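worker-03 picked up job from queue 'complexes'. Input manifest follows; two sequence lines, order preserved.
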Amino acid sequence: AQSVTQPDIHITVSEGASLELRCNYSYGATPYLFWYVQSPGQGLQLLLKYFSGDTLVQGIKGFEAEFKRSQSSFNLRKPSVHWSDAAEYFCAVGAITGGGNKLTFGTGTQLKVEL
Amino acid sequence: GAVVSQHPSRVICKSGTSVKIECRSLDFQATTMFWYRQFPKQSLMLMATSNEGSKATYEQGVEKDKFLINHASLTLSTLTVTSAHPEDSSFYICSARTSVETQYFGPGTRLLVL
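worker-03 finished. Artifact:
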């Protein structure tokens, strides 16, 4: 069974500083990996996804993530954080089943941005 | 990107009543939709996979008679919480699959059972 670990429950960064959110996964085959962002009371918005190919993936809002198979990691990065980036971030791994992509989510990282 | 809506966004009901939540894909057809439940400050837990024209597939530990899922068309799936109790209070989120790899999520429905 697949699993996702997000070691950091909370992270606080200053506006303009760089950001890295950690994600480690466990999956028996090549994973499909995702990062989602959730603002308070809202659903999830897809930031980026990795299926295959280039291990550095560019997403929306200036985010990027790098797939490192040797470390089973898919860390999310942003060079300069904006106050509007404050939200909950979820990493997810997908497994192809008969009914489609079944996602397993990490427990999330709450990002706080200090002005 | 693809848009998924949910209705209602918030609902308060009395214990013992049933509540229906709708999930619609607005600009695409989805043969598969998913229902998740999210507890406060926790991750999303997959409840069931909803397949158009067939029975839903429930995750282990989810009562199918309590959480009725109907996927009557390619753009609509409904989740009915039957005989709701306070412990059913939660944030319910649906998603719709646009391809084998990608899901788009609705904004969620906050259910409070008194």
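worker-03 released lock.
The interface with chain A takes residues 1, 4, 6, 31-32, 34, 41-44, 46, 49, 51, 57, 93, 95, 97, 100-108, 110 of chain B (CB under 8 Å).
The mean pLDDT of chain B is 92.
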